[in-house]
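Exercise 7. Given the encoded structure of a 229-residue chain, write a plausible sequence.
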């Protein structure tokens, strides 16, 4: 059996690869693969920087791709994509903001402090447990919280009103009996007491303040204006 044609095929293939054009193409392809290999390592480095705050892990990711050599670096990329974190730092931050916004929105929903049922913001009493939720301002008829010290719409001071109401409920001594015995009208007794207090205060101040010295005559006796007249 004549196999001389096989040697001719081998010579043709060898001459093809030995041509300068093919050699240049092979070299360019090798350079291209090396560039892709290094670029993949840099991509893994930057990708890991966006997915973790650890400063060491990006270098380990780049070393993983480089360790697979230019021939098998595609397997290194596959391994890296499997073991890398699933979300970036920006995505995690946005997810955290969304969760906080959702929690804040849930907290803004009013609930009954006793039974925990969701209540409307315009309800005064919980229909389930009959717990008082809000009160009505007597001045502007707006709904206000039970713990508010004044109305936010009209400025009505609830604490002052409650203090005046508490003073009005205190027991008062009958004025007719005490005032009639003293000879003072019942309605005028508070005014008379205030006048007496004012006069007592002025008298005490006048007695505590020393008066000016009286000038004496040259003979050692004080001259009186009445005697001179």
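Solution.
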């Amino acid at each position: 059996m004549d196999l001389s044609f096989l040697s001719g095929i081998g010579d043709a293939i060898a001459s093809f690869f030995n041509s300068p054009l093919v050699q240049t193409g092979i070299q360019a392809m090798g350079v291209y693969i090396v560039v892709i290999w290094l670029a993949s390592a840099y991509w893994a480095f930057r990708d890991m920087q966006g997915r973790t705050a650890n400063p060491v892990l990006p270098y380990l990711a780049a070393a993983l791709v480089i360790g697979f050599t230019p021939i098998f670096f595609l397997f290194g990329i596959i391994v890296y994509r499997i073991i890398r974190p699933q979300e970036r730092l920006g995505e995690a931050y946005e997810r955290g903001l969304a969760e906080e916004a959702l929690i804040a929105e849930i907290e803004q929903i009013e609930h009954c402090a006793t039974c925990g049922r969701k209540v409307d913001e315009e309800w005064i009493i919980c229909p389930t447990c009959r717990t008082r939720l809000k009160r009505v301002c007597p001045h502007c008829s707006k709904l206000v919280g039970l713990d508010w010290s004044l109305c936010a719409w009209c400025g009505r001071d609830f604490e002052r009103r409650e203090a005046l109401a508490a003073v009005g409920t205190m027991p008062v001594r009958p004025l007719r009996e005490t005032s009639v015995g003293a000879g003072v009208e019942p309605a005028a007794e508070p005014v008379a007491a205030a006048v007496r207090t004012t006069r007592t205060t002025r008298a005490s101040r006048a007695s505590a303040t020393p008066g000016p010295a009286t000038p004496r005559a040259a003979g050692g006796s004080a001259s009186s204006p009445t005697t001179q007249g």
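Remark. Residues 114 and 220 are 91 Å apart (CA to CA). Students should compare their own answers with the one above.
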